[in-house]
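discrete fold record:
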Amino acid sequence: MVNENIIPKTETVYELKDKYEIPSFEEFMKNWKEGKGVDKSYELEYQDRVLHGSQYSPGSEKKIKGKKKIKSNEADEYNEQHLIHTLNNKWGERGELWDVDESADKNEDGWHAFNLTTSAGASSGVGGVIADGGYNGSVLRYSDHIGDIRIGSGSLGGEAGIGLGGATLGYSANLDAVNLHTNSGVRANIGLDGGSNFTAGPGGVEVKAAGFGVSVGKKMGFSTPLGGASIDFEETCNQQ
């Protein structure tokens, strides 16, 4: 017969002394001292927000209500030399009146039939204040990761702004047989151009009157009433 070792169950009770009592929130805040590491962490986070803005990816903080990335009008092609949009994109706000991109028919390959894009809005921020609006309609449009081409298109647009990012005032009016815009910064069009504008800023200067114009700076190009071409070196460098 096997004898079992019977181990008696024991229970230990500890009494919390006063010094182990959980402090109140007021006492905690009164006696708590912030470490240098925490100070440095907050400082680095603040610097990152100033340089790069808040990060709105999954798992990070929510997008601040009322903030929206600055988007210059798609129909306007004369705002590349000033930096108002660029600066306001990082340190500013934009209000959209409307933003429409519709097609009578489109497929997954990027083809759009009877496409209409129109938008209008205004922004303010470090770059200054600026308002823009425009319309672009095309019989046939093709878009992919390389760029955008419109066949049989017409557009109207306008923009006015001033601030630390420069100054711009003008309008665009185009009837194009072909209009090409690549993501590498190359633009070209064949058609009728009756736009006029003056734009100056840190990026350079662009002047156009009744379709005749020249652009010198980060965007280099020319325009005539029958068409034109340009290249934006900033967009080109960003693609490399």
In short: DSSP finds four helices and eleven strands in the chain. The two ends are 86 Å apart (CA to CA).
